[in-house]
Amino acid sequence: MNRDILSLVFARLIMAFGYSVAFPFLSIYLYEVKNLSMSLIGSILGISTIFGIVGRILGGMLSDYFGSKNVLVFSFFIRSFIFLSISLIIAFNIDYKFFIPLLILNSLFFSINMSNLDTIVAQLSKEEERSFAYSINRVGVNLGWALGPAIGGIIATKSYSLLFFISFMATILSAIMLNLTVPNVGRTSKTFEFPIKEILENRTFILFSVFSIGFFITMSQLISTLSVYSTNYINISKSELGILYAINGLLVVFLQIPISNYIEKINEKRALIIGTFFYFVGYFTLGFANNFYHLLISVIIITISEMFSVPSAQSIASILANKDRIGSFIGFFGLFQGFGWAIGPMIGGFAMDLFKFNHILMWLFISSFSLISCILFWYLFRKML
Questions:
Q1: Nearest to residue 65, comparing CAs of 197, 199, 193?
Q2: What pLDDT is recorded for position 4?
């Protein structure tokens, strides 16, 4: 693995730590401290993500025109000051409505980040190494995820404001590391325009992007829906919630590379179908949970499924993309990813309020979106398996 990829891994580790130390506890803060309903919380998060969807397309265009690293460093600095602002709002107990514009801005720049992060991995790696490059990046991200919630679960019992101040500091540090260690790549276009005609002509890429929505809807439940469900319906502590997220991250750290090697043997398309099916199984089993250990079993199934499906989806998208406009193509794929993440919290919040007395129906409804994507992926790739 080349040094540039490893440098990117370390920068993403710190960024992921900064995000995960605070954001899994935001829904809990709004629910328990501000006394908002889950439908309202899901709507706030969903609406902010919808505004952020444009960042996927914008991020791809910016990558092709300015280079991925330049865009990433700028957006990291912007997000760091958003986290600082959220920290101050919580510290001074300001009305929850002031969260909304900040969450919209965070969602916009998060989407720009993700488009460029997915793009720069593809640009720094050879096609035959692509799946492994995405996998090793996930190891860095999930090590940050393992550390963040575990520490955040302890701090959240004392101060929600401090959580977001730590996010501010970590994101600043990540931007500095990225700027100093990773080369600027991806300046493939001399015009700042979106190649919609090229994208629409790539039928397989279009169908793959559309079919991914259900998978991303289910994937988005890990932060907002699962955190509130675990602490308020199953009644585990915030520290135990932090342990669940830490185990999620640590499993990826230790198992992602062996699973990535296995993916190379069965190919990314089979791995994606396997992963999305067991994503359905993992989330559905949450409906039968009665304690921390039941939740843990479900999270283990979800995490292993994630290790099959996420790097496979990223690799497939980059391989199907036109090579001279890879940033814009991955940004377009991210548009559907962002849409799934946008409506996911709203669907999760709606399901929790509607089926609060029947947890099995709640999670059957939520997890069914991944099953739909699984079936559609099989249909699209059935001749290539």
A1: 193
A2: 84
pLDDT confidence of residue 50: 75
CB–CB of 234/289 below 8 Å?
yes
The residue type of 385 is L
Q: How many CB atoms lie within 10 A of CB 359?
A: 19
Q: What's the rounded Cα separation, in Å, for the pair 282 and 275?
A: 10
Write down the pTM of the prediction.
Answer: 0.77
pLDDT tens-digit series, residues 352-362? 989 988 999 99
pLDDT band at 63 (very low <50, low <70, confident <90, very high): confident
233 CB neighbour count, 10 Å cutoff:
14
For the segment 253-276, what is each residue's pLDDT rounded down to a tens digit?
889 989 988 998 898 999 999 999
Q: Are 312 and 268 in contact (CB under 8 A)?
A: yes
> Residue 317 in contact with residue 330, Cβ under 8 Å?
yes
Helix boundaries (H) for the chain? 3-20, 26-28, 38-52, 54-66, 68-91, 99-124, 130-155, 160-181, 196-201, 203-211, 213-219, 224-228, 238-266, 268-285, 292-320, 326-354, 359-381
Q: What percent of the chain has pLDDT over 90?
A: 43
Phi, psi of 358 (to 5 degrees): -140, 90
Could you tell me where the DSSP H helices lie in 193-291?
A: 196-201, 203-211, 213-219, 224-228, 238-266, 268-285
What does 182-220 look like in DSSP terms, one character per residue?
Answer: S-------SS----HHHHHH-HHHHHHHHHTHHHHHHHG
Cα–Cα distance for residue pair 169/93, rounded to 1 Å: 21
CATH for the 3-183+198-381 domain, from 1.20.1250.20, 3.40.50.720, 1.25.60.10, 3.40.50.2000: 1.20.1250.20
∠ at Cα 307 (302, 308), nearest 5°?
100
Give the DSSP H/E element, type plus range, for residue 379.
helix 359-381
Residue 17 confidence (pLDDT): 92
Q: Please indicate whether residue 185 or residue 221 has the higher confidence score (pLDDT).
A: 221
Measured distance CA(30)–CA(149) in Å, rounded: 17
Quickly count: other Cβ atoms within 10 Å of residue 206's Cβ. Answer: 16
